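User: tRNA(Ile)-lysidine synthase. Structure?
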Amino acid sequence: MAVAWSGGRDSTALMHATARCAQALAHEGFALRVLGLHVHHGLSPHADAWLAHLQRQVETWRGQGLPVTLQWHRLDGVPAAGESIEAWARSGRHAALQAMARAAGASLLMLAHHRRDQAETWLLQALRGAGLAGLAAMPRQQARGGLVWARPWLEQPRARIEHYVQARGLVHIEDESNADPRFARNRLRLQGWPALQAAFPGAEAALAQSARWAQEAGELLAELAQDDAQRWLEPAPGALPALRLAAFEALSRPRLSNLLRHWLQRSLPQSAPASLVTRLLDEAAAAPAGASWPAGRRVVQKHQGQLLVLPVPAVAPAQACRMDLSTPGLHACPAFAGCWHVALVEGVAEPSSEWVGSSLLRNVILRPREGSEQFQRAPGTPPRALKKAWQAAGVPALGRGGPLVYADFPGETGAPPRLLWVPALGLDARCRGQGEGPRLRLRWLPDAR
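Assistant: Predicted structure:
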């Protein structure tokens, strides 16, 4: 198990308490080691001394029989111009902790946040005008990237942790940046919290309780959104799941807002701004067909009684390019601003299904559309102009982005490459089930990072 260990009071207490538990379990036959993960941000002139302190602390604790080790990582670079130091440090710290825990094979990472931290987070979010997700503050545990981030002391008062540190004589570091009032949390702790607690002695427990109520309400809204998604979301050709516009008449505005936020969270690579949700609530139902709303690197478009989330079309490259797509996995394609997901088709698959043998994908040609392509959508149907095939399948213009895939077929020496795959439509019916080797299925992911 791993502990995020800054060296401060709270994380030192958690590291020590966890190590004592592991030591006690060793007598019961459980061989556990506690890994302290330290991130050297490079921001304080004392950061090297803090790391040296932790290294000495580990040696001291080992001498006392505690099963502890230390790993550390120094962040590279500095905040970009205009970037918040807090945001830069937090993002880098989380990435470093995730990487170190994964490298060590840890599945559990514990953080030392306590009840006062939770109360402060709730209050800061409220002062920023946050919605329910913000007011839910910090979860007790959450899974991210195969790692469980847990806060076992989230309901413990700060005073209890201070008592633990004093009772065991633990030495910890003091980060001088905690006294810098430029940071919002520091201002709250130094200026606002003493007055608040003097006027309302139970504020810490009360605000932490409010965060728990917000978490419970958020879970209920998530369940409701899942139920509504089952009814109002449906597959769309060449796009992420579409939202049926009939929901705008059937649902109340708060319930529709909840569904929109759920849908956009699933469909966008970044969080949907509240302004986008408000605009869709106010404008989408009455907007003309084809109306669109920008959403970062995506766009929301009204099409045939639905709202679709589509990629912003990339500028086509000047020339075609070749790629090897004959192995399963993700294959970056910078020329078309996206990547390929190649999946292995297992089990019995009919020749007419959406797969081709790997031999056809070893040296494919990627081209932008030129306008004269012919595509056969289903076996036994005549080939037709690609534009007509897209229209017949109900694929909007913005959903047709991406490269066309051509392949050289065996036995056709001297013949031009044949159209194999088309965005939003898939494999040409004349190519399905052909080729030797493992059976593979293609999927195009626009603007994948």
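The radius of gyration is 28 Å. The first strand starts at residue 2 and ends at 4.
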